[in-house]
Design goal:
Number of strands: 5
CATH class: Alpha Beta
CATH architecture: 3-Layer(aba) Sandwich
CATH superfamily: Sugar-phosphate isomerase, RpiB/LacA/LacB
CATH topology: Ribose 5-phosphate Isomerase B, Chain: A
Number of domains: 1
Shape: globular
Strand order of the largest sheet: 2-1-3-5-4
Helix content: 40-55%
Bound molecules: D-ribose
Strand content: 15-25%
Radius of gyration: 14 Å
């Protein structure tokens, strides 16, 4: 799988850990920064990863900031993005299976590296189930398009 990743200064260390973890599992990872723990602004990286997913450059995205909230809010402003903040593996699996999430986000100040590993395993191994869920995904798009 081709995965876009991004983080702010708070997420930098956990990003490096999970980047290696994903690469060791055979994924191709494209890193959109930040590339240090120097203070920066999470919307930059949320937008960059969202654009990479929407353009098809990458299949899915992963975002990390302090809580996962700011960086996912920024990504969700890009049409077609369904970024989900997650602190445990159950939601990570279900947001792929039911919500067809295309970006997973989490907080470096909220979870540790072992939980982050479980979250990305569930997210990237799960498959969207479609069928009854598609109608609701279509309704989210209608909201985006001002039709609902
Ligand atoms: C940065 O201090 C912090 O606000 C950011 O990492 C993130 O948690 C925002 O949602």
């Amino acid at each position: 799988m081709n995965i876009a990743i991004g983080n702010d200064h708070v997420g930098y260390e956990l990003k490096n850990h999970i980047k290696k973890y994903l690469e060791d599992k055979g994924h191709t990872v494209k890193d959109f920064g930040a590339f240090s723990s120097e203070r920066t602004d999470y919307p930059i990286y949320g937008k960059a990863v969202a654009d990479a997913v929407i353009s098809g450059e990458c299949d899915y995205g992963m975002l990390i900031c302090g809580t996962g909230v700011g960086i996912s809010l920024a990504a969700n402003k890009v049409k077609g993005i369904r970024a989900v903040v997650c602190s445990e593996p159950y939601t990570a699996r279900l947001c792929r299976q039911h919500n067809n999430a295309n970006i997973i986000a989490f907080g470096a100040r909220v979870i540790g590296s072992a939980t982050a590993e479980m979250i990305v395993d569930e997210f990237f191994n799960a498959t969207y189930e479609g069928e009854r869920h598609q109608k609701r995904i279509d309704m989210i798009k209608q909201i985006e398009d001002g039709e609902l």
